[in-house]
Amino acid sequence: MAEGVELLCVGTELLLGDILNGNARWIAQELASLGLPHYRQTVVGDNTERLINAVQEAAQRSRVLVTTGGLGPTPDDLTTAALAAAFDCPLEERQELWLEIERRLSAGGRTVAASNRRQAFLPVGADVLPNPLGSAPGMIWSPRPGFTILTFPGVPSEMKAMWRATAAPWLKEHGGSTGSFSSRVLRFAGVGESN
Question: How far is the CA of 184 from the CAs of 70, 181, 187, in angstroms?
């Protein structure tokens, strides 16, 4: 039976060691503070086939999958399309998202690139996880009974704002909390680890 929360971080830059995966650490701490069992973390590069495989595997063993990364407008931002493909679900444009993306990006006098329109597409049936700080919305989507996906951009400030505003309240209500976790760090000097 599927249980617990799993984390999937997307980005070749993580696999190459170009950036430290601080999102995984932060989310793990947040899950513990919510009392949610968290059993596995996976990192996948910007590759559609590997991403689909990782998502399908997670769906077999977890109740909730949290993803970070791959929600931007560039060709290597594959997360949303790969998630839809993993469950054979079409993407649909959300006009309200596109209008918000255009408004947000053009507010600073910038020209809105055509590629930004990709960010307004979500799988049919997905709910928007609003991004108050950036142009990449996330989603909360249950592609099958007993399995829900929450997606976040890889930009830490955006991910944290979205988590606090929307995801944490959702997880408190739907995540299957087991109470709270506590841990204690003991520090020793002059004693070997085996002792």
Answer: 35, 10, 10
Sign of the alpha-carbon torsion through 165, 126, 64, 74: negative
Distance CA 10, CA 44 (A): 5
What sign results for the dihedral spanned by CA atoms 79, 11, 140, 87?
positive
The answer to whether the CB of 6 falls within 8 A of the CB of 65 is yes
Q: How would you write the pLDDT of the chain (195 residues) with one tens digit per residue?
A: 568 999 999 999 999 999 999 999 999 999 998 989 899 999 999 999 999 999 999 999 999 999 999 999 999 999 999 999 999 999 999 999 999 988 988 887 888 888 999 999 999 999 999 999 988 999 999 999 999 999 999 999 999 999 999 999 999 888 766 666 667 788 888 888 777
> What residues form DSSP beta bridges with 139?
128, 151
Torsion angle in degrees (nearest 10) through CA of 135, 136, 138, 143: 130
Distance of CA 140 to the CA centre of its chain: 9
